Amino acid sequence: MKDRRKELADLSGGHPNDRRHVWYSLGGPDLDPAEITEATGIAPDRAWKAGDAKPRTSMPYKEGVWLIDSGLGEADEFHDHLDALLARMRPSWAAFVALGQRYEADVEAAIYCMEAQGPLVIVVPEVSASVSELNASLGFDLYALAESDESPIS
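Structure (tokenized):
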């Protein structure tokens, strides 16, 4: 499997200046972030309840969200981000599986491409199986930017 992962990293690495961000989130109208933190033992990187005011608009959120990032830097390859995110979740895996049955669960990858040709997006079977076990959707946001453009995640 190591050779397959190396091959995928070579194929999907994209431009050396591409930026990547990967996260897991739970969402729902009755989601209380404190309950998710208590169930998993993991503090979220971002969280809010339904009714909390959105920054810059004061409009209320319609649903609660609890979110953790992979913990890697923007320059790291997205397969490494996915692996790091799942590793971060493993100690509380049973709780995440149960929470994925109760709330909307998502694994998202944002890739900011710095040249016209974006990365080849392939997910290895064991990562797909893990995301499925979490009852989570797996999504990719691909953005084509000029090298001088700023990433919205900076």
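The first strand starts at residue 19 and ends at 28. The chain has a mean pLDDT of 86.
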